[in-house]
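Why show two proteins at once? Because comparison is the fastest way to build intuition. When a single record is shown, students tend to memorize it. When two are placed side by side, the eye starts asking what differs. So, the first record is below.
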Amino acid sequence: MRTTNYEPLSPLAFLERSAFVYPDKKAIIYNDQSFTYAEFKDRVQRFATALKQQGIEKGDKVAFLCPNLPPLLEAHYAVPLVGGVLVSINIRLAPQEVAYILQHSGSKMLFVDTEFAGVIKPIMSEIGDVKIVNICDVESKVFDGPDYEEFISVDPDEFTFGVDDELQHITLNYTSGTTGKPKGVLYTHRGAYLNALGELLEFQCNPSTIYLWTLPMFHCNGWCFTWAITAIGGTHVCLRKVVPDEIYKQIQKHEVSHLSAAPIVLIGMANYKGIGDVQMKKHLNIMTAGAPPSPTVIKNMESVGCTVIQTYGLTEVYGPHSVCEWQPQWNDLAIEDRAKIKARQGVPYVTATYMDVVNPASMEPMPHDGETIGEIVMRGNNVMAGYYNQPEDTEQAFRGGWFHSGDLAVTHPNGYIEIKDRMKDVTISGGENISTVEVENVIYQHPDVLEVAVVAMPHEKWGEVPKAFVTLKEGTSPTAEDIIKFCQERIARFKAPKEIEFGELPKTSTGKIMKYKLRAKEWAGREKKVN
């Protein structure tokens, strides 16, 4: 409750402030549309009023299946404004996966971009009496019920842009479910508020920031940038299709200053055929996370005039939790050496506070020697409230008073953390631990390699050995032997992959390579390495 010296924290306050301070400033741009901050606030109030008229109350779930469009950005304010909890669904999921999320969350309403109507139609009988609203961006209305603009065409009520309890849930985000059913991760108003401010500090945003939405808003609520850019009074540039041609077009047209993206997006940007013709009017700042980026990817982006910062986190910690905080003495290093440092996961955000590498059994911290591997654990303001309706999973994740990431890492002498692998990804060959990330980073240095994933494959003598799945750059044709020899010249021979398979890599919608599918293929019929 509010008192003279206490106000519950909520990112809803960000919109109220920016609408007051910058009423006529462009808040949202999408194609030929734009909304000022005053219009943004008005649309949110009308949206919230319409939700209230539909009976949405405190704790009710409202789901969205929508790309990075203005309605989804507005939902990050309108749904919690009436006390609801936003459930933003991955647009690349299969119908049955979407059905599970709608059922598990108990969502009462579903807003669907009609391009994805084909995902919803097969599960109509399974999702009960969920009320559907059409978002008609490139396709006409498909489902019974109003379209979005029609839905929010109501006289707005007045709302208080805040909450009485800062630990009230604001969003429910579902994990990718690579080892079973996806888990619902609960965010609070307090956590969203603090992590949004952390993003502003670490990404050095200011009121002149023009932020391009290359990162899915459905992924950790866009790493909380849905609220952060509003907090600083910057401009959101919405983007439907995240492809290099469209990314560069928007960068030039709107003088974009900041964007966030998984390494896979940066790979596409760095290898874009028309990159030589790109004229950036502003210096471009890029935040990357989602998978450990190779130093080669960072170097390639910085060579075209960008600054890349590496952050690290998970859905369970509101997206980024740590950053490779840059030190001035590193400025004079060669670009290759700078890139190696920037590929580290670094130190906790100023708003996150706690992170360590420990022995997961004893919880004792590992030495800061850059070599001894342990598990990354975190605690603090931006750790999730828990898994929705899954208390046993929550208890397991929080054992020992820390959140267990499942990521294996080392701590360097300066305290900076560097990921070496996922617990389930590490290859144990003849008793030797091999970091697949280390092997991938070497293969990425090969000039013909576009993407790579390394997993363990069974081996009669050694138990398991590394195998690399490689996507080549267009017009190149190295042999498997060429790449294996390239690795053997740069790392210990036992770490080099024993086989290379060329082709496209399976990925999630956030750009993460789905190694579990590659492992399942290699270990089919066996009891190991299928997760």
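Second record. Ask yourself what differs from the first in the token line.
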Amino acid sequence: MEQITVTATAGEHHLIDVESNLSVVDTEALDLIQHEHINQALSRVSGGWISRGNGQEHLTAIRSPVLTGAGGCGAFFIAQDGVSLRAPGFCNTNQLFDANTEQASRIEVLKGPNSTLYGSNAVHGVINVITPDAFNQKFSTVGFSTGPNDYYKGNYSTQFSNEEHAFLLYGNGSHDGGYKDNSGYAQQKINFIHQFQSPLWSTKTVIAATNLNQETAGFIQGFESYKDEGLKTDNPNPEAFRDSQAFRAYSEIKYQVNPTTLYQMTPYVRWTEMEFLQHYLPWQPVEKNAQKSLGVKASIEKQFEHFNWFAGIDADLTEGELEEFQGEAFSTTIPAGMHYDYTVDASVISPSTQLQWLASEALTLSAGVRYDKTEYDYNNHLSAGDACAPTVDNCRFTRPIDQKVDFDEFSYQLSGRLLLADSMSIYGQVSNGYRSPQATELFRLQAGQQVTDLQSEKMTSIELGTRGLLNSLFYDVTLYTMEKENFIFQDTNRHNISNGKTSHFGIEFTLNYMLPNDFYVNANGTFANHQYESSLLISREDINGNEIDTAPQHMGSVQVGWQPQARTRVELEWLHLGNYYLNPENTAEYTGHNLFNLRAAFTLNRHWSVNVRVLNLLDEDYAERADFGFGNYRYFVGEPRSVFASINYMFDE
């Protein structure tokens, strides 16, 4: 209850004072999990599911189905210290591998629409990776981990600090030979932090870089093929790969004019470059994309006797480019050569303001509004129109003419918190979120579509929750309902349109209970329904009223642990994923799974500590992700029982 959080508000607040839902995976949990993939850490977040692909690939779900394509990342605002990992119109479904989540201070997850705080893309949720406070890092460390399939990882951190300055350098490098044939990856992450503090000024400058070189394994096909011992390690796409590099630098500058007035500015630059084979398409083209961005987030916070006022403005300039090339012709309508080659200059300007009324010691009410102006300037570097020969009808790829497109959006948020006791509160929120169409939805067209007339996706949400501490039990329970309009999808004619409607409602809970004799139980879960509310032309059947595919109605996790002292911790984890449909017609289904993991961490002395993890303890046959495409059941296979071990050395201060 005393934990300081930043993602759910405009500044730092204790969890009991937050007026909306918020889940936190803290340092202790991250140190115990020692995750090889981000889904292992975020499985502790109610209402969230990071669906694991091969290597470091993943798809995200927060109060949503697992979304794919541009909508699979455009629906979520994913950030480090509040700075988006990718430019607003150029997201990537796998972008969480751009952040050093393994050595983060904590990961905060805000569920549901929050565009008033974060702007475009904060439709279904926000994932914010918080970097360490360099002043709090008192030791230098070095560590090594190993596991099956030639997995190994090295990590390090070193620091220096005095009363005014703190420096922290940390990072990790990992290699995985891959469970599947001809698969595996090598990944490196490095971060540098400098902090300065004085009575009036404070700064936190962060430089982060990542590199990923991956040999990607594709789906295996066939009904429940993930149970077939002869197919589990097959890689139908040994030629698939993904190479990705990312760089970010930003400086959070705070000027505390007086105890009631705070100015803050965060200028930033970011750069990403990626090349990969689209192995999930039968014709397997190669895509190259890159973005360069320059931006700033600026704000003022002012406290009055009974009011707190916040005003801010965000600005982002991005130059993005994309190429798609195919070496050999797949058919007359899917030719060899360059399918797309374009650049997009994008700008986003977004002012916002919030007013919080301290109505009494127990009651707090807030209201906020944001305006967002997004502009795209698209320049095609190839001939306009079809990519096929002039005599070919129904060409798969269409290149629109040069054009400028803009979107204007408003968002609002009304929230409140009533403190029933020192450690018990109820909270509620009415909010909306939006996302402007992504550049690929606007300009990478197919089947003769020359111009899109897409609207921004919009979500309206109502949530009501309660959190508190009752003796040794912490609880946080939230009930929500959400309606989405202008859902962007590709219809059966392969045209991008935006007249879809969906609904989402459910209940989420987080429980932490301290038992006698140093035992504890943590649990999180969600019961939800995600449904099509219009007859979308993504099927030749009427799907209005059907459940959305890849959207389990129930999922969650339970951790039972024993921590007799700070130096020892043993934990058994149960992961539950319910059944879900694989297609909009609701005719194909995955039955779900239950997994068990065992983790133990021991501090041997003031220098040495060890960590052992047994994943999939019962050696369950399961699919990390199930899919139905091009007439086939498709699966990313879950790995069998695996044992990982880590050793860490801490240097004297």
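One difference worth noting in the second protein: The two ends are 30 Å apart (CA to CA).
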